[in-house]
Write a structure and sequence with these properties.
single chain; two-stranded antiparallel ribbon; 38% helix
């Protein structure tokens, strides 16, 4: 039997999203041969108590995996601490892991892709991250998969040796950047990753993902990405703690097996250009920005 990577799922207070995520995950052909770990964060306040209970009712159902291990956090850790602690625990035991949050619907062969990539690149220290999501970029000059500097957190995988370079201390990370590195980190200042780093430093956000990207970037590591996304993110509907209502991240999903994995471990220049162009124009016209602003304001006022 193959040594499939364990799957790590982080859930909080969205029972409907969690049920959809688990259902789609369980439909992957090798799900029944995979071990699943679920980390359920505790309620932040009394208003989240019932939803957390509902989520735990969902995850405690009988799901068709080889084994299901559930951790119920007694208190609220927050997403960042929950992810960092959970990934570290599982990866220390299994040497590798596939990581998901409660709002991703995996494509039918996503687990096959993650496991194939984890096996192919396990001995290459430059490859530090396997990604499953890709923006709706210009794909005209891209192969089925490619390498990029950017790590994306919607669904991903890594190994113990790579995760060992994760730096939690934001000051230690920021102190290693100069102006040129900031430009490279932000795709020539087209995406707000450096702003996220500074907000993290000020305590205004708490993002494990931007710290992971910075850790990989400073190590000069690379991420494998698929040209077409292997997941649909259903979390941009205003229900998430860290997301608003947006269609900005809608993308095309690949329904077939990924067959191509590059042998040359270098960043694809066409992918860099395509992602840079996407970042530069991602917010759309002034009308589109204004419309998103109004929708989110309405949601804040009348739906919460």
């Amino acid at each position: 039997m193959k040594n499939y990577a364990p799957i790590v799922l982080f859930v909080y207070n969205r029972p409907e999203h969690t049920a959809k995520t688990l259902t789609r995950l369980s439909e992957n052909p090798i799900a029944q041969e995979s071990v699943l770990y679920i980390f359920s964060d505790g309620p932040k306040s009394s208003k989240d108590q019932n939803k957390v209970v509902d989520v735990r009712s969902v995850i405690n159902q009988k799901w068709p995996f080889k084994e299901v291990n559930i951790t119920h956090r007694p208190q609220n850790l927050g997403l960042a601490a929950n992810v960092i602690d959970g990934v570290t625990e599982v990866i220390d035991q299994h040497e590798k892991a596939i990581i998901l949050e409660d709002d991703v619907l995996l494509a039918p062969y996503a687990l096959d892709y993650f496991n194939a990539a984890l096996t192919k690149y396990q001995d290459n220290e430059k490859v530090m991250h396997i990604g499953g999501y890709m923006y709706n970029i210009d794909r005209s000059n891209l192969p089925e998969t490619f390498f990029t500097r950017l790590t994306m957190s919607q669904a991903w995988a890594t190994w113990k040796q790579s995760w060992g370079y994760f730096e939690k201390d934001i000051d230690k990370l920021i102190n290693q950047f100069d102006n040129r590195k900031v430009e490279n980190f932000t795709f020539d200042n087209t995406m707000n990753f450096w702003k996220q780093m500074k907000l993290q430093q000020k305590g205004l956000i708490n993002s494990w993902a931007v710290r992971w990207y910075a850790s990989v970037f400073l190590k000069e590591g690379l991420a494998l990405q698929t040209t077409y996304s292997l997941l649909d993110n259903i979390g941009h509907d205003g229900t998430g703690v860290h997301s608003s209502i947006s269609d900005m991240f809608n993308t095309e999903i690949q329904q077939t097996k990924v067959l191509y994995f590059p042998d040359e471990i270098t960043e694809n220049p066409h992918a860099y250009k395509a992602m840079k162009t996407y970042f530069k124009h991602r917010k759309g016209s002034l009308f589109n920005r204004g419309w998103r602003f109004l929708i989110n304001k309405w949601h804040q006022l009348y739906q919460k």
